[in-house]
Amino acid sequence: MARYTGPRGKICRRLNFQAFESPKFASPKRAYPPGQHGPTSRRRTSDYGLQLHEKQKMKYLYGLLEKQFRTYFAKAAAKEGITGHTLVQLLESRLDNTVFRMGFARTRRQARQLVSHAHFLVNNRKVNIPSYQVKPGDVIQVREKSKKMEMIHDAMRR
């Protein structure tokens, strides 16, 4: 599956939000959006612009592209309950996000790579799909070969 590989600093400046976990993008050198008209004063954002802004934050935070995000939104809208809460639940239950939350990776991108390289088992089955939906009660464990990796070994000691 594809993912965004462009300049991350510009995204953080445009959204005025640290969309990537790296401390490199924590405080921008320039506190205005990138581009020719960035330093000029900002107008009041419309409701549509505000919603788009929030959607872009979610997309970049979880490392999704538009089509995949739209699919998650459609699933959330089809389920009962508040669509926003359901959407966050679906995104938080992805395997790469779960690995990140468990502390095996410093960033979601790193967690995605660990999952893609098949370092984890879900219910004793090798899973290398970052978008795999983890259900309550699923057992996530590190593969025996992967336990020797320094990064995973350190995370297991914590």
Give an account of the 3D structure.
By secondary structure, this protein is mainly alpha-helical. It folds into two domains: 8-62, Ribosomal protein S4/S9, N-terminal domain (Ribosomal Protein S4 Delta 41, Chain A, domain 1); 94-157, RNA-binding S4 domain (Structural Genomics Hypothetical 15.5 Kd Protein In mrcA-pckA Intergenic Region, Chain A, Roll), CATH 3.10.290.10. It contains seven helices and three strands, in the order H-H-H-H-H-H-E-E-E-H. The protein has a three-stranded antiparallel sheet, with no helix packed on it. Strand 1 and strand 2 (125-126) form a beta hairpin. The longest helix has 16 residues, at 47-62. It is globular. The relative contact order is 0.10.
Keywords:
single chain; Ribosomal Protein S4 Delta 41, Chain A, domain 1; 3 strands; mainly alpha; Structural Genomics Hypothetical 15.5 Kd Protein In mrcA-pckA Intergenic Region, Chain A; 158 residues
